[in-house]
Amino acid sequence: QVQVVESGGGLVQPGGSLRLSCTASGRGFTIVAMGWYRQAPGKQRELVATITRGGSTNYADSVKGRFTISGDITKNTVYLQMNSLKPEDTEVYYCNVGGYSDFHDQVMDYWGKGTLVTVSS
């Protein structure tokens, strides 16, 4: 079992910045990639950004140039620096951890409980 914990959400004014953090813990699991997703009420969860163990990153078009994903997967930690925030960025942000489980002998992924980001004046 892998536990995933996010932190750093909150209320920020339009144009402001926030930094989200995600840490994973557990045994017998080799993390291959970590990422951030977000979900608004009544909408599907969507990808924000991902980073692989090799350092490759991927971003949703809506956040390119404003958000930066970083971290050290070997230390089970990833961050999301969010700049130039807009009201439409107001959503619950979830951390996803994907990798190989020794116990289950298969690829699996785990989600955190989410952290709310509210962009409002």
Key terms:
elongated, 60% strand, seven-stranded mixed β-sheet, four-stranded antiparallel β-sheet, 11 strands, 121 residues, mainly beta
Q: TL;DR?
A:
With 121 residues, this protein is mainly beta.
3D structure, described in words:
The protein is 0% helix and 60% strand. The chain contains no helices and 11 strands.
The main β sheet shows up as: 7 strands, mixed
What Rg is obtained from the alpha carbons, in whole angstroms?
14 Å
Order of helices and strands: EEEEEEEEEEE
Q: Report the total helices.
A: 0
Percentage of residues in helical conformation? under 10%
Q: Quick check: average pLDDT? A: 95
How far from one another are the termini? Answer: 40 Å
Form type:
elongated
By DSSP, the count of extended strands is 11
Structural class: mainly beta
Assembly status: single chain
Uncertain runs are none
The fraction of residues assigned to DSSP E strands is: over 45%
Show the helix and strand layout:
Layout lengths: L1 E6 L2 E3 L5 E9 L2 E11 L6 E7 L4 E3 L7 E6 L4 E6 L8 E11 L4 E6 L3 E5 L2
